[in-house]
Fold this protein.
Amino acid sequence: MIPFSPPRIDQKVIDEVTAALKSGWITTGPRTKLFEKKITEYCGCKTTVAVNSWTMGVQVLLSWWGIKEGDEVILPAYTYCASANVIIHAGAKPVMVDINKEDFNISIAAIRKAISPKTKAIMAVDLGGFPCDYNEINNLVNEKEIKALFTLIDDPDEEVFNTIQDRLLVYGTPIIPDLENLWENTLDEATSERIELMIYKLRLNDLKEAFIQWKSNPEPSLFEGALLVTKFQLPELSLDTLRHQMEKIRRNIWLELNNYLTPLEQANVLRNILFNYYQIKGVEVNYEKPEAFLIAAPLQSKTGNAFANTILYAELCHQLEIQASFINIPKQCIVAFYTPDWDPTENYPHPQEYIQFYVEGTTGHPFSQKDLDQYFTRSNIEPKNHYYKQLSNVRIIKKHILEFAKCFSSPILQYKQKDLTDIANLLED
């Protein structure tokens, strides 16, 4: 329960209010002047101005402090609407932050994360008569580090910059909007590049943690893993949009399936929906076109390479409970349709005997074991048992990342290749 302090209204207060009403003064009168005089004496200040409400008082203060359009004012999310309204009236932007679970007052940690170069004031609202921790707020505001970090980004000394960068990275991705704002207002090209690099590193650190969490799941989703790869290249893309599009495709395919269809008929349904109805096209693997590797390619632009299209195909098979999986054929992206008695945990001497047919994931066309044998012969590849076993989702995504990393082999982009390789190493079995 919120510990609101009840107002103290005794008979003396009631008598004074009654006397004021009977005086005939309903605006600024002698009692208002007396009140201002006594407050001035009590506080030891130069003067006091009485206003009709807290709202008006804060509006006066914001104007007095020069708060204007483009400025930001931090305030608690749990407060009366007037707290934000006065900020808007001043032309500024209210930045709402979280509160403490103990007293429902503004969180100091949340204030710290919200501070940006545009922050001009912090509106610490006392809830129900219980004051905020003003000592900690003042300490935060007066911290030299918070004020100086952004101003030192353009320091020519690389050692100084590296120190600043390391400190900013501690704040994590919540500080990215502030860095982006700083980037927009920076004319110096070298400083802009520094800011861009910091934003990239913040996102990379966040992405690595996301991959570690994804792998730790009992059954890591192939689709969610592919979304994380997409996030590397397209960090601002809405992943929920891709999830929604994936669900639409899955539902359309599901409506065409029934329990009486053979596996080949199921494959034909998938091919008709994906490649005819949605008109998804397959393109050759081209390391100069990294976007074609991403799951967003077939879902949004309707054009993906073998990796993107096959991952999409394999994930749909999983969601629709079709007995088919991505297998490890060298230099190919292939989905195998297994017999009902296939057990992925068994070490079969001839696993290909449990495969009914194969599907080329780029276009959805089925082919036979004979076709695959001919591929091995033409390519001088010796068939091995592990080629026919289904890959785990972690192995698929690792393979996907390593191929995707080849898109960044140029000297100027090799740092991305190294970062992707590091992510792939996080997915070691």
Notes: The CA atoms of residues 62 and 90 lie 7 Å apart. The longest strand covers residues 355-360. The first helix runs from residue 11 to 22. The chain has three domains: 11-146, 153-210, 219-426.
